[in-house]
Model the fold of this input.
Amino acid sequence: MELTDFLLHTDRVPILDYMGVQIDEVALPERITPVPRRRCGISESHIYYKGAGIIYQGHYVNALDGHMICLSQNPVAYQRYTAAYPCLYQKYGIFTFCHQPIFTDYEGGCGPKEENLLSMQEKFERSAIEEIVDVIDVPLEGHSIYAFRQRQMQGSYKDTIALIEYILCENFNSAWDKNLWADIMCCGYVRDLADWYVSDEPSHKLGTIYALLHSLMEADKYLYEDIVRETVGLEQLGDIYLPYVAARIVERYVPGGLRALSLEDMTPELLGRLWEMIYSGKACCHLEREEAWAGVRTEFMKEIPKQIAMVRQEMKLRKKTAAVPVQGV
Done:
């Protein structure tokens, strides 16, 4: 195949149904280069067009139909399967089915939830977006394309610490199970604010810092260690203690932010209370349709006894190890 068979540059965004039939299109003011991993293309003038379609490779569902193939089964209660319509694979456009069961965004598009981007851009000082230059109507209910220019910047782990302090002190929050680090640019600026909201509730603060630390640990363990060492000095604690590390960071920047919860004695029961606090907040499925997915919290809560047992076992092993003298070289 020729290289040109793999590359697409276009100023038209087709709107397709699940069979690949084009039912409409959107004209853009300039050509963009779409990508298969994000619903966002970029132009030669370095303007990003969020919601301007995607090169389709699959989406999430809770029930399979006869036109789909199942790519994988997921452990997430609110999106059980990764599936694909074979006739759409590698086609480009906005598709008239939802990318995830929990959101109303059509595959490749930006639905009503994304309108939050406009108001958050005005409030959030550490946005990676320099300006939103245009909002383009899409002939699908509640959908638009958001054209924006990103800031030019550099950053280090200290910018991440400054971001943590900022979001805690200014009461900005996002979902506890979101891959927040994927949305952070140059270590300290958030490139996508549509899934953020304002609240001073302890569960939301703790969940947000947990999400940031967990996704950062997955992406860059060295950077994670630098940040935790600098803020609370607990970088040697293993993954199982991540809710406690997050809680200590919340308390450092917002003393009393967890209200009456004491962090002095790190016990399995305390870890259980922290998990309960996180789960009582907002997962991704609660960001747009809170009531429809409220029952998911019950499923998360059922995991707490297992997590407490794991912490108890880890602490026993740690105690045994501590009793063994370290041999010198």
The helical segments are 116-123, 157-169, 202-219, 221-231, 242-253, 268-279, 296-301, 304-322. The chain has a mean pLDDT of 93. The radius of gyration is 22 Å. The chain has eight helices and 16 strands.
